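REVIEWER CHECKLIST
Item 1: Sequence provided? yes
Item 2: Single chain? yes
Item 3: Sequence as submitted:
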Amino acid sequence: MNRNFWTIRVILLCGFCLTAAPLLAQDEPPPARAVRSDDVPFERITMKDKADTFEINIRPLTLPRGTFWENIKGNDTVRFVSEDGRTLETKRKYVTSYIKFPQLLLNEANRLTRAGQLDAAFKFYDRLLLDYPQHEGLSTALSAYLYENAKGAFRNNQYGEALGFLEEANSYRPPVDNLDTAINAAADKLIGDYVAQQQYASARELIARLSKLRIRDVASVTKWKQYLQTEAGKKRDEAKRYLAAGDLNAAFVAAKQMRFIDGKVSGGPELSEEIARRFPFIRVGVTVPTVVANSASMTFAATRDRRLLQRNLTELIGFGADGSQYASPFGTLGRAVGGVEFSLLFRNPAEAYPCSAQLLSQPPSSPRLALLQESLAYVDLENGRELRVQLKTPHVRPEALARLDVMQQLPEAVPYQEKTSGDMRRFVVNPDYAMRSPQQPQAIEMENFGYSSRALLALRSGQIDIIDRLFPTQVDEAKADSSLVVDYYRTPSIHFLAPNYDHPLMQSPTFRRGLLYAINRSSILDGRLLAGAEIRGSHLISAPIPAGLEADDSAGYGYDNSIDPRPYEPEMSVTLFRLALLELEQQAEAAETDAPQMIKQLKIGHPDSEISREATTAIARYLKRVGFEVELVVTPPEAIRAADVGVDLLYVEACVQESLVDIPLLVSQMIPAEHQSRYLQAAVRRLNEATNWTQVRERFWTLHRVAYDETIVLPLWQMRDYFVRSAEFGGVSRQPMTLFQDVERWSAISLTSGKGNK
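Item 4: Structure as written out by the authors:
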């Protein structure tokens, strides 16, 4: 090839100059290579002489005194440095093209976009936006690039993603052709999906957002706005008919459905206000069945429902920087320095004497009262209204001992009375309830849902107002819905398998430990319950003690983080089973009794909740691998002792609020005293005798170690439990201890627009 434009003479540069000392070109430079997104900036020239064309990548040129490429004459000699560092020169007339680095990036980005290689093109656009955001032609190219991304998302039925690309493309000027039509098509599909899924709030928000865009074609916005108004009008008229017929329940539900679709429909706000005034009513979706009766059990369901049926002398309302925070619904709570005394100044003097008399009742009416009576020095009632309680020894949280129900002494302290008819449990406000508020719901219905996904559908359609607990995989979906509010309880639930201590094999710590090694708890929690999501506060535990939701959570003061949960080792299980049988044979020989035989079948009980069903199904599969046939049995939601419901292992979802008081009670509820080892009894007794926080922590760690070594239960995991409500539903505290903690402040219908997750 004849390339006459090359010279190897060193002459004075009249155009561009890159180096102080001219260099001589030994050979012609290599052909230009393709540009990469992470390249050090270079430029490209194209040379042509007759039939010969040659592209060269060169180092960026510096223009002296404002000289521009277009001003250089054809016979002027220009010199440049090639990418490999050699200095070359030629006449200007041979250079047919000079492209700067940003344009090289843009050309390659556009080529990749046209070829459908969108991910590869992104890297070039990203470099341009970072280093050359004002480059000519970039804005138009980005609009076209985003349009191509939207086309791909639309073909895959990802209408939300497609619309997002198109809206961003519309922000660049000038936008690509046919953008208005594309936005309208994607919006039509996405709003249609929202309506089909009854996500009306999301549909309304999207319509409002699109109305503000600078687009000409808004046919989908008009279409769906009219549709929502029409459907909301139907529900409005339906509610009016029910109201006229005196069916307040049906009118309430229809009006709620109207507000979910479009609460601003003509006449809608006035109708909602009238129904709220005449019928304050709440419907709760529960994913764990309600308990049969008022129960002292510490299960999730019993703890949830108890607040509707009783008020306690003192109540734990949260955790602050100084630990637990207590209040009394009956008056002002006080605590003396030193922890040997607490007082309660009653608002109503008539309530003071019955409550003080209860503290001295014999025999004690509850395990909590028995625990308080063991510590009592005296009880005094001053001026007929101030209850003063003195303890024998200091206690770090004396008011925690007084979490006692007073429903027998004070019937006016019962918030609701059960009036169940049919399958749905119904609670009606106690007309004599002394602490009722004007906006308090007059009736609460609790509808059971086997799956929280179904409960979410009912919540979105207006059939219910709040859901007590979401399955972990449903949390993100609920958070994405702006018509809902997702929150979580202040303390985690702890999950474990409680053994039946009436069974000889279950009395063996070695056998219980063998069962624990046989269960792949990490796989069940991470794979089956959390589905790979990371939820802080949801993790394996090594003892039935809450570890708190965060690393520095004051609610987790009783948990020893230095004790790691036991791993999954099925081989160890088989060895431990054999060792347990050997130990029991030796004990039987010494006692001259028959040794128990290895069982082949295990009966596992669980409440009818979605979490426990999923967990026990997986647990059964792991136990089958080590030789057991497993039968799963649904047990009452308040069951906490395996022997009481006739199972070998009982899945328990426990709510431990104040570990110092609740853990000893939980141990007594699960394990009969005759089956508690002397080490366990001593650890519990010394914990109850702790007089300062240093002793509490040290003795809790001792109890934790005993519970771990003896495997008093099969510890599984703790979980951060989320609940969800309609955004228009009011009065629910942030991060409450239990669902109904502030039920007196709940409002059936908020007359102002609620704010959801977004």
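Item 5: Key structural point noted by reviewer: DSSP finds 21 helices and 24 strands in the chain.
Item 6: Recommendation: ____
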